[in-house]
Amino acid sequence: MSTTPSTHAIVIVGAGPRGTGFLERLAANLPELYGDRPLDLHLVDPHPPGPGRIWRTAQSPLLWMNSRAEDVTMFTDETVDLVGPVRPGPTVAEWAGIEGRTFPTRPQQGAYLRWVFERARAALPASVSVHEHRTTALRIGGPREGRQRVWLEGSAVPLLADLVVLTVGHLDAEPDPEQRALAGFAARHGLVHLPPDFTADTDLTAVPAGEAVLVRGFGLAFVDLMVLLTEGRGGRYEGEGDALVYVPSGREPVLHVGSRRGVPYHSKIGYALEGERPPLPRFFGPEQTDALLRRPGPIDFRRDVWPLVDKELGWAHYHRLFSTHPERTTLAWGDFERAYEAAPPRGAELAAVVAAAVPDPADRLDLDALDHPLDGLRFASKEALQHGLRDYITDDLTRRHDPGHSSDAAVFAGLLSVYGQLLRLGNRIDTGDWWHGFFSYLASGPPGPRLRQLLALSRAGVVRFLGPQITVEADEARGVFRAASAAVPGEWTEARALVEARLPDPTLELTSSPLLRALHEEGARATASGLLVVDPVDGRVLDFDGRPHPRRFALGPHTTARTDSAFTRPRTGGVAFRQNDVTARAALTFLRDRACRLPAPLSA
């Protein structure tokens, strides 16, 4: 299908949550900026619009969201920095009529997203025609100053578009050299190898019951894997809290799990941050970001930015500690504040200031120790490691549900503030995979009940911990996979199955999206870590030479403007909402200006 030259058209590739959010902002801004002129909107996605692939309703209800129902909204409020109009709407809890502290299932979230999409579509005026294409976009062509052509799978005739907006969400990836080698090894020896993938999309029927399975990765992908291979195979839980017991079905494998850190992501915080909140930003705000942007050349994350991030998160932590638990400090807040402000970031002087004012090490913030919780620890045996990890997870659960440690929640607020500044740095900085992983580890961990289930599975022997800094080998002589950890030197675990419990890296070089791969090959710029580089102001795709493409935009996790999480908490400023608003207004302004230059139609 193509559009007529007299009607402007936008092609939106990706109709999941980000595409839906963009559509909502387009509808909100359209009356002011475009009026009742005719417009064709083409939505291209092989999956249902609204939920898209990740949140589709046709998946196991055993899988949960990673956020509480009261903490998820697709609608703007007065805290969002918008030029366009605020259009409030319900949270998942309010829409579904469920208790706010509940963790909704993925299908429940998918149903909410479908409703949001239908509402956004209904808000469009009658002059806008919406066309849904349940297929895959293969390639974008066309001159910078002319209409774009979007080729779709299964059609020889491209869509014609004045503008293209890429909201493709999370990307699949082709195997890297290591994964290809492991797959070849598995094929030669009749083993099971599952590469990085979205767990809900992975065919787990090949994972053998009752046998050892090596699992590399201890984040959210592992939690889904754990659920699908236990409850998903007929197991069940009895009791609650610390007395929770797993009753196996006999069809479970034995999951031997390890990772770089060797521990799961920190539990979701189980209380609300009440009372005085840290005044943010303080040490990494607009002033510091502006100074970085004035520097010539690239900005190095570790050298130039991480010290500011460290000090900002420390500020959030100690402000909360001093304001809520002054009895656990030895200085007046004003004295500490002055000393903290004067000390250089991440140095001995700052450490001395903190040590003098905060006597209990458990009340101090050490980001390096958090990132490497098991470094230097050695266990006498594999069994000793199991006990040690269960104690670690239990302590984490206790702390993250204790308001007495609400400094942790203040650090979470600091992380959100930091992410907003990193987005302003845009294509001047490449934070790499470490920062996003560290953020997720601290701020986007599993619900507390999931970690209680993990403990029950460990006690039942269904999950076994491998430890940190794991090494995985393909033993050609024995025809098995082997794994070992720095925590138990010399102890190896053998298995005939290996599962990579992590998401594919969102790189343009390895993406299995033909559209994005072609876009990169034809001139779109990518960071060293493989993200699509976009203008931080309005999301326009940048060419190799740094020029923004006038007719191509991109929003989402595959870009340098990726935000801190998939969804927005109410009343937290909604960076993704602001991005959607700016991009929608830029698109409509572009089309309006072109419409004003078109000749008037001939009268009858």
Short characterization:
The chain is of the alpha/beta class and 604 residues long. The protein is built from 16 helices and 19 strands.
Describe this protein's structure.
There is one protein chain. The chain has 3 domains: 258 residues, FAD/NAD(P)-binding domain (3-Layer(bba) Sandwich); 142 residues, FAD/NAD(P)-binding domain (3-Layer(bba) Sandwich); 128 residues, no CATH class. The chain is globular, with a radius of gyration of 25 Å. The protein is 35% helix and 14% strand. The strands form 5 sheets. A 6-stranded mixed β-sheet has the order 3-2-1-7-19-18, covered by helices on one side. A 5-stranded parallel β-sheet has the order 8-17-9-12-13. Strands 4-5-6 form a 3-stranded antiparallel β-sheet. The protein is of the alpha/beta class. The longest helix is centred in the middle third of the chain and has 24 residues. This is FAD/NAD(P)-binding protein. It holds the Pfam family NAD_binding_9. InterPro entries: FAD/NAD-bd_sf, HpyO/CreE_NAD-binding, L-asp_N-monooxygenase_NS-form. It comes from Streptomyces flavochromogenes.
SSE order and pairing:
Elements: E1 8-13, H1 17-33, E2 39-44, H2 92-96, H3 106-122, E3 128-133, E4 137-141, E5 148-152, E6 159-161, E7 163-166, H4 177-189, E8 192-194, E9 212-216, H5 220-228, E10 236-238, E11 245-247, E12 254-258, H6 286-294, H7 301-324, H8 333-342, H9 348-357, H10 367-371, H11 382-400, H12 407-425, H13 432-443, H14 448-459, E13 463-467, E14 471-475, E15 480-484, E16 492-495, E17 497-500, H15 514-521, E18 540-542, E19 548-554, H16 575-597
Parallel strand pairs: 1-2, 1-7, 2-3, 7-19, 8-17, 9-12, 9-17, 12-13
Antiparallel strand pairs: 4-5, 5-6, 10-11, 14-15, 15-16, 18-19
Helix pairs in contact: 1-3, 1-16, 6-12, 7-12, 11-14
